[in-house]
Request: fold
Amino acid sequence: MTGDTALSQPPEQRPTEVVRRLFSAAVLAAVAVLITQLGGMWFALPALVLAGVVLHEWHRLSATPGYLFSAAAVVAAWIAIAWQENLVMALYALFVGMIGGAFYLLARRHEARVPWAISGMAYAVIPMVALVWMRNADGSSLVLLWMFLVIWASDSAAFVVGRIVGGPLLCPSISPAKTWAGAVGGLLASVATGVGTAAMIQETLTTTLMLSVIVCIAAQSGDLLQSALKRRWQVKDTGRLIPGHGGLMDRLDSLVLAAPVFAMVWTVLSLEIDNAAIP
Reply:
């Protein structure tokens, strides 16, 4: 995320808010690195908890009933990916949950909430599945850490450059704070970080550059998606769980699209490498 919350505060409140934001980000980053390194259930269980909290925030803000029904779909997808390491079954569990959730709401005469319930499941499940799938893959600890570093570089640079440079807004109809300068600063920082840590993913310079750009664009798109949702729900933050950031959806906005997009691209690259190795 690129700092809508801090920028929307009155000037006299901004320094304190920025300090709280930086401290929370540092703690969360340290935890993310630790559980990624540990892997296994040390990574999978926190991923499940995060998905459940994100789903809760989504249902609360969108006023969509049937949270427990949606949560069951999240758990089913998690079991498939974390215990069985079966990506197809995880996506199938999500699909079945969407269909069941739709029928549940139709039976309760909440037709208008059906799109929100379906999209909420996807918003919570797909990033979780992508992250656990990537971590379960051989040698993926460094790959995931590389992705995190690129996303954090994009978020931090966009926040700092946007505050210092200012200038034209990136998408004023969605966010009153994100600027083109911040977006470009985030992109440059992502590329520099991705290329500088290319040894972590053992790819060529061209491939690393491409991956850095893709991850950055996906992360910033996820940030804009979150801003659009908050504008639709007419809230500044999705919650108060994380000091300086708001709710969990506020903090994980960049991962929502970046994780699944990176997982898909990385899987395609891995398949191409495997096929090339076949005589």
The two ends are 45 Å apart (CA to CA). The CA atoms of residues 58 and 120 lie 6 Å apart.
